[in-house]
Amino acid sequence: DFEASFIRLIDKVTNGSRIEINQTGTTLYYQPGLLYGGSLEHDCSPSRGIGYYLESLLCLAPFMKHPLKIVLRGVTNDQVDPSVDVLKATALPLLKKFGIDGESLEIKINRRGMPPKGGGEVLFACPVRKVLQPIQFTDPGKIKRIRGTAYSVRVSPQMANRMVESARSILNKFLPDIYIYTDHMKGVRSGKSPGFGMCLTAETINGTILSAELASNPQGQGAAVLPEELGQNCAKLLLEEIYRGGCVDSTNQSLALLLMTLGQRDVSKVLLGPLSPYTIEFLRHLRSFFQIMFKIETKTPEEEHMGGEKVLMTCVGVGFSNLSKTIR
Amino acid sequence: MEEKEKKKHRAKHSGPKAEKKRKRYLSDLGLGDEENARKRNPKAFTVHSAVRMARTFHRTQDLKTKKHHIPVVDRTPLEPPPVVVVVVGPPKVGKSTVIKCLIKNFTRQKLVEIRGPVTIVSGKKRRLTIIECGCDINTMIDLAKVADLVLMLIDASFGFEMETFEFLNICQVHGFPKIMGVLTHLDTFKNNKQLKKTKKRLKHRFWTEVYPGAKLFYLSGMVHGEYQKQEIHNLGRFISVMKFRPLTWQTSHPYVLVDRMEELTNPEDVRINPKCDRKISLYGYLRGAHLKNKSQIHMPGVGDFAVSDVSFLPDPCALPEQQKKRSLNEKEKLVYAPLSGVGGIVYDKDAVYIDLGGSHAFQEELRPNHELVQSLISTHSAIDVKMASSKVSLFMDSRPLGSEDVRQEFVMPKEEKQVDLKTGRVRRRAVFEEEEKEDDDAVSDEEDDEEEEAAMSEDGSDGDDEDDAEEESDTELLEEEMAVERAKRLKPEAINEEVVNELPAFADSDDDLEMSSEGEGQTAPEESEIEEDEEEEEEERTYKNESSDSEFEAASKREAKSKQNEVNTEDTEMRSQILDHSLKRKAGLTTDSGNCTEEEVSESEVANSSLSEGDPEEGSGGELEVEKSDGKGFRHTPAKKADSIRQTKLKAVEAAADDDVENLLREEEEYEEKIDFSADTIGALKWKEDLTQKAAQAFLRQQRSTPNLRKLVYGTAVEDDDHESEDAADELGGLFRVSRPDKASKEKANALDCSKFLIEKPQDWDLEEVMSSIRDCFVTGKWEDDKDAAKLLEEDEELYGDFEDLETGVVHKGKHAAEGDESGSEEEEEDGKMSKPEPEEEEKKKERMDKKQKLKERFDAEYDEGDATYFDDLKEEMHKQAQLNRAEFEDQDDETRVQYEGFRPGMYVRIEIENVPCEFVLNFDPHYPVILGGLGNSEGNVGYVQLRLKKHRWYKKILKTRDPLILSLGWRRFQTIPMFYIEDHNGRHRLLKYTPQHMHCGATFWGPITPQGTGFLAVQSVSGTTPDFRIAATGVVLDLDKSITIVKKLKLTGFPFKIYKNTSFIKGMFNSQLEVAKFEGAAIRSVSGIRGQIKKALRAPAGAFRATFEDKLLMSDIVFVRTWYPVSIPTFYNPVTSLLKPAGEKDSWSGMKTTGQLRHERGIKLKQNKDSLYKPIVREKRHFNKLHIPKALQKALPFKNKPKNLAKKGKTPKDQWRPAVIREPHEKKISALLSALSTVNNYKIRKAKVKHREQLKEYLKVKQKEDEQKFRRQKEAKKKIYRILGQREKKRQKSSLKGSSKGEKSV
């Protein structure tokens, strides 16, 4: 279902791609076309969050022919996929590091939609680049502030405040500079299902952003969750993420590695926390597609109290350049 | 005496004396010297106009920035590949002579014939690859793409030729390499003045083409068929100090200028189907960018291929290692030109060939032919043999080629050595003949030594053989015949063997496992040897041979070997590590032994001899090899000698037992041996594959102790696709135990395909310890010593005391403190070492001084950067990146480095390619360059490519849309069908039928995707020679897409069939209502210019519609609508496969013909449309109907505008016509008299009239006077009266005033 929707999305952003699915739906033949971009709209399947679609678009958007400006409709926050808030807070600064910049780079949440029915709407816009800059991103720096959003739709606005309180109670032990926005959406903007949740981001002095998020159980599934509990758990997740550390948070590891791979023929370096299984699989794909192998070194922080082991990833870009961008 | 008139003194006007005088004169005047004009005349240099000054400033600044290039990251490797020098010019201009002279200049070697690229060491840091470029346009295009430096030879006696200009244009399109002109044939000028003139003329023309000031060399005369030494020397100097600007295309793509080609096809396949696709390996220096394995490449002139394997080889033409010497010594002046048959040492993947011929010059002529023929026709049995494990092969240039061995030697050089042994006589003879003088002593001595050591008679027998061979060598012809025969006999046999053995190679591994259990001792040493040099690898192969011996023998041998190896202390550690591995490796090893046994059974000839007899033979064969290799080893490096001696000793012991048998069988089994070996090599291949893999595994295993993420991610380092399953199945090493649960979790995650990193067991963050574990991640936590603000402050205070610190940023402080700390500690250490007794105060002082110094430097750096430009910043950044690129993988060994970054430029690589058309091999001609151009990620695809194109101004014709054109774009040369278009103002791409004459236009074709901004050039045909300029068009790629939007104009016409006022019904434009519906609202127009709009379809005639116009139509009007019809582009993409043509016709490739050519060839006349023929214009007179004004309107009009129908009197009817009067003579007289009288009367009347008018004039004058007088009088009278009246009035007023005042008073 969501995969079909994804294929349709891919079909929309490309030109000349050929997709054939056999009758039983077991095999998919895909002949890639050219990334076209432009202004688009897409209805995502509510069985997966918009994050699922947005993640892949983040990888593709810088290499389109025309700047991408797409409206995605569906579930903005759920328990499975990285939510739009997190991507907005973490992925965009990451893209900026690679030279994908400009005011047209944005993710805007017009409406929030919670599972199971969704009804959210997100605007994603991304400029086009010909080549990416290599990055040297090995020092995460110290965390200087924690920001976050606690959202609630179709439930009492008090929920958000309760979450904030509980999260602060934990995080305040580490850092005084905490600000968690409460975001209560009403009316049309609140989507079709009730729910609440929060996402937290920790920003370091060097611009690294780590994130964690949690959402309530969707309506009619699982037990009801107390907002206090959720806030606490979310804060703990953030601490866990901080423990893992690295210059890129665990959700965006693969994105960072991909953009490094697609850079010019220069050395890029990035320090990551422990590699997630998804990233490991992703690295294997990178090798099979681009013949790129990363140099992987484990780094144990020299000092105590700096969290777990880190991984230093180094690679030489493949010298990719955006072939679809028109020159005048 | 007559005094001779004395010569008068003449003052000097020029020359130094006059100059001096003038100066003195001027200084006397106080004018001083000219240089000081500024001082002398300051007013002349003042600012006159600020605007003008600003302008000049701008201008200079512009010029300055114009000189900048966009900085690019310098990606040249530390050891750059040789510079490609392309020598180009029209025929008979002296290209080859220049090359020969240059080579001679650099290397002191004389090459007689140049074929293909020649690589030479030209200096301490530079190598050159010199290649000659013929006049074939294909060659010119290909070489222009890879050239770093172009030597453009120009025949001065003739002037510039088309080729020169063509090549310049090609260069311009594909990035401009450095170009140096060389004028030759200057000795043909007898007249010095003319020579000078010509030189000057050519120089200036050259400058306009390249750039003003481009270097032009003059090679004056020939001496003994060579250019003058000094001139060539200068030329060489220029070449070797030249600097190059990196070209975009070249730096972004890997490419190889192939200097050696070999065929690897299975001979069996070739036998079955001589036209089958071939597998070849190509050798050359990698240039440009990094090359990845399995990437796509393009071979211009052949096609696209996927690299099936790449490996790097030791540099055959290496730069000297130490740099300290001032100049190169003779040994370091290498030359490498395999296609020309030169090159000292040839390294292959697993073999080394040494060219020992001291007699190049004399053999050169023969050799190439043989080689060529060789590689072409060659050898059915050859390939596997080649793959065989062979070792060092000594090859003599001269002898082997002529004989049967040659066959094998060239195509499959690896085998050579073995061949020597087997078919001993030919080989040996060669050795003696050629090298008697130089090598005899060395080789034979070595051999003798070994023999003594071994106490063997075997080599003696060999020696006999050799002697025999020598004798035979005299009768060369005879022998060659024999060779041919032998080869013939050999073929079928070999084939049989292969067929039989290929399968068993796999099958036998099982039963061999038993054997392997005994042989642990043996395998372990072998492992250890892997790590050793190639030589030792060769020895391994001999082991292999031995392992094929029957089991009882093998057992004893292994014992011996293991003993031997235990002596080697170094190896023992390795062995222990690898022992756990041995099981696998044995399997691999024993497969070939299985092969051998199989073979032997199958051999008919060996049937009489027992199995054991056959085997020892092999063993001895192997041994011999070793000896040979040893011999080489001696010559090479004493270090290796020791090893090899050890080995030979060992072998000698083993071989002793078999010796006599061997001698007996020797002659009979020459052929069989060959077969054995060929079969062996099949096994060997497999074995070898295993070997590398195993070696890699073993290596990794060593590193197991450190948890290696790389393994986790990429599996066993060197990737085999099946490694995962394999490992999971049979290995339970520590690594995989770790990775397995991971895989499981991965799969779990895969089910969801989500990038979130789920946490299985989160830590309890309420606990204090856990919390403290990340405490320092926050700014509130503890900082590192060097960054801790508190500490820094403290330190600062210590240091500076009262100084106020203006810098406030934490990071700032951190940095400087860090530096300070470092330096401090260093200093301390140093100090500690150097001067302990010194008082501490001094130390501290020093420290402080140092810190100050550092601070100052930082300050300087900061403030100097203040005025740095953007350009400088960018440059700096690029420089940093370049340094990082260099440094990152520097410490790694090549093997791993290759995996990370691919093969880096400068490496000598061997590239294997499969599925190459057989014509490439069959028609290989070293004179034509073979280039492997790497393709980027999506450059292997095809799509629609948009170009900006301009017809070359020197090309005679214009280009027609839809005519095939050959483009050179990227690496490729291909024929395609472009469509020309021009962009309208609204962005529409309108099709053009022809290219405009002097303007750019767009073009779109279907072909390979190439990055935007890449230049291209087009030619109509690459075959034949025309005196005209061949380059038809040039341009650049603009855009790539999967669809196109070129449209052409289409006018649909229709005719009115019913006309109301402004509405008309139109038919004939469309065919159905649906069509009309599509065009509703479209603008239409009549030919006469009346505009209108399509309204709605009509029912009655299909396709008719109602339309409104701004005026009434006529029935004769034609109505049309302008539409745009999308053009489809023919998907025609035909690579130019010029290299596949037979040897003599490589420049005669012809692809699709244009319709024009076809018509011309077949004599088909174009049928012209009669309507479009020109004919005299006949214009009919137009009649305009009268303007008709309705009566009602006429009535309403004012009279002025009313039509006046007075003029229209109408004709008088006939009955009212008056009859003409005919007079009588009498009446005539009367009328004449009457007319005369009337004339007189008229005259009188006129006279009277005139008189009367004069009188009247007089009268009027008089009257006027009178009137005037009268008027004056009247005026005066009036004046008088008015005055009186006025006075009276005044009086009255006065009186009345008085009266009134009185009256007022009274009132």
Automatic annotation (TrEMBL), chain A:
Q: InterPro entries this protein is in?
A: RNA3'-term_phos_cycl_insert, RNA3'_phos_cyclase_dom, RNA3'_phos_cyclase_dom_sf, RNA3'_term_phos_cyc, RNA3'_term_phos_cyc_type_2, RNA3'_term_phos_cycl-like_CS, RNA3'P_cycl/enolpyr_Trfase_a/b, RPTC_insert
Superkingdom of the organism of origin: Eukaryota
Indicate where this protein resides in the cell. Answer: Nucleus, Nucleolus
Query: Which cellular component terms (GO) are annotated to the entry?
Result: nucleolus
Query: Does the record carry Transferase as a key word?
Result: no
Query: Sorted alphabetically, which CDD domains does this protein's record hold?
Result: RNA_Cyclase_Class_I
- Residue stretches making up the RNA 3'-terminal phosphate cyclase domain: 2-296
- Drop me one GO molecular function for this one: RNA endonuclease activity
Q: Which Pfam families match?
A: RTC, RTC_insert
Keywords on record? Nucleus, Ribosome biogenesis
Example GO BP: endonucleolytic cleavage of tricistronic rRNA transcript (SSU-rRNA, 5.8S rRNA, LSU-rRNA)
Residue ranges of every copy of the RNA 3'-terminal phosphate cyclase insert domain listed in the record: 138-242
UniProt lists the family membership as follows:
Belongs to the RNA 3'-terminal cyclase family. Type 2 subfamily.
Tell me the protein's name: RNA 3'-terminal phosphate cyclase-like
Organism, per UniProt? Apaloderma vittatum
